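Marked as duplicate of an earlier ticket. Keeping the data here for the record.
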Amino acid sequence: MECLFCEKKFRCENPKSKEEIDKSLKEIDDDLKRLKEVADPEARIKLQKMGEELKERNRRFGNAHPSVLLAIGKKTITPRGHSTCDGAGPKKR
């Protein structure tokens, strides 16, 4: 896989490589082991579930360094054309 940011000066890690996925799964497992320190059983169960879901997403989609991840969003427009991004609505003058 060619790097999108280095003008092909070097090859970057493949986010779906077994090594990258295994490395991320180990890091998640190490973090999940620390859940025994969480006193609230409901919170511990919720965090355990989130960790397992994250591991499944890593297996399915791969794991990339944050600097090469891309986020795609959608800006909501109200019927009158005012952005709802800040939740403040139209400005009064």
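See parent ticket for discussion. Residues 18-63 form one domain.
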